[in-house]
Amino acid sequence: MAKPAKPFKYREKWRAQLTLKNGQRLTRDFPTGHYDDAVRWLAEQRANADSVHEPQLGGPTHATLAQALDLYAHLYTILKGGAPAELTRINHYLEAGGLQPLQLVKEEGGFRIEPKPRRALPRSFAAHRDERMQKRAKTYAQLAELARKPCNRIAKADIRAFMATMAQEGLSASTIQKEIALIKAMFNKAIDEWEWTTFKNPCAGIKLGGSVPRFVILSRNEREALFKALELCDNLYFWPLIKTALLTSLRRLSLLSLRWEHIDFEHRVARVGSKTGFITVPMSQTLVDVLKSVPGDQSKGYVFPISGNAVNMCWERVREKIGRPDLQFRDLRHIAATDLAKKGASSEFLRRFLQHKTSTMANIYINLTQHDMHGELDKLQRDGDIIELPPRNAADALKARQTRKTIRLVDGKRRDKEDAVSDTEIAVEQAPQSAVDTHQVEARGEHGAGRVSDATLAPGESDAASAPEPADNVVRVQFGAARVRRAAGG
Q1: Do the Cβ atoms of 30 and 13 come closer than 8 Å?
Q2: Beta-bridge partners for 17
Q3: Which terminus, N or C, of the chain has the lesser number of Cβ atoms within 10 Å?
Q4: What are phi and psi for residue 207, nearest 5 degrees?
Q5: Nearest CA among 432, 444, 436, 431 for reference residue 471
Q6: Which phi and psi (to 5°) does residue 124 adopt?
Q7: Is residue 477 scored above 50 in pLDDT?
């Protein structure tokens, strides 16, 4: 591989010279002291001209990141199932780069991209947007800087700094991953298809974090509130749209692109567009009944002839009524899969139902529900057989603690007494009979000490008649056949 051309000295100047594949020679002289400018010029000419065809947008030296993303949206984003979300992300760069934002418009046979008219936002929403942007001022500032920069001036360090700023301002790993993945995909297309042959992707080698799955659980009361709120919606198409989403797990864009011509009621299948192209969706009898109840002409056209904005407005009102402002339309897809998993759907069934290539997500839904364990756990842990809950309030807890302490003290005294009896019996067995007969018994109470008068007792003889009555704090202890006094070392 030939080494790239370098500037050389020519008549007290730096000459940059590049020969193209078609034989054309490009030459330019630079004053002394401008060697770096000559090197930069050679790199720009090589990036723009090292190809048989002209590079798109004039090559990476002329195209800014915003301009490149604008072309990417028209060529590739429009073909994706997730076009609305990606287009919203691209519009941030277009507006920051001084370009017209884009919008997705539904038409016969699909969608088209066209310039989005600039309208004054309502005062309340404008204030909300300004407040949100202020919280992430550094992120938007760096985004604007990247958007206006020529692509060949964007280095890997710029991408790293952008990622660090997003993380510092609280953006999730999933959001950062989507942001960098967009730029990386655009640069890859530019290298492979736009004749940017000498351009190096600044995102190459940067490891992106994975998206965090989002799971939402609705309680029984929240489900009832959701259905009641849907019944009160004025849009006649919104209720069957939500019902269809719960019965098919289809995304919003797929639902809005569903056409009557693509539904076969006889064989109960529907052909609908998705993120990966057209897919065939089997329909339950319940879904058939729902679709047949949709108002309007069912011979042709869209099943749900409403705009994405109308769906957003209806959904906003519904989630406000049920007190779940965090509930998103896409959560209906997760709720549908979770419901099937709770009813015992297999991993393979869920994979096919969700139109996934692998069963990874299906297994996650099944593990979350654990429908096969709840019944067994209820049987094993019923009526407090295994688990006894602690006291519920401070008074009960104190009483229980005092009871446990009393039990421990009583058990300790009982063990000490048993140990004392055992030690004395051993001493009596080992001592001679004469020594046992002459031992004295002495016991001391907690409030003082008392002594029992000395007496010589025969084995088994009682001293009740001869011995004086003991004081209250004197305790008589009978050890079998003899009364003994425990002496030190005795």
Answers
A1: yes
A2: 27
A3: N
A4: -80, 125
A5: 444
A6: -65, -40
A7: no
CA-wise closest residue to 243 among 209, 182, 291: 291
At residue 443, the pLDDT reads: 42
Going by pLDDT thresholds of 50, 70 and 90, the confidence category of residue 303 is very high
Which two structure tokens, joined as six digits, stand for 4?
Answer: 């790239």
175-207: pLDDT as tens digits: 899 999 999 999 999 999 998 888 999 999 888
CB 273 within 8 A of CB 256: no
Joined tokens for residue 267? 């064989």
Phi, psi of 271 (to 5 degrees): -105, 120
User: Which single residue is written with the structure tokens 């919003």?
Assistant: 252
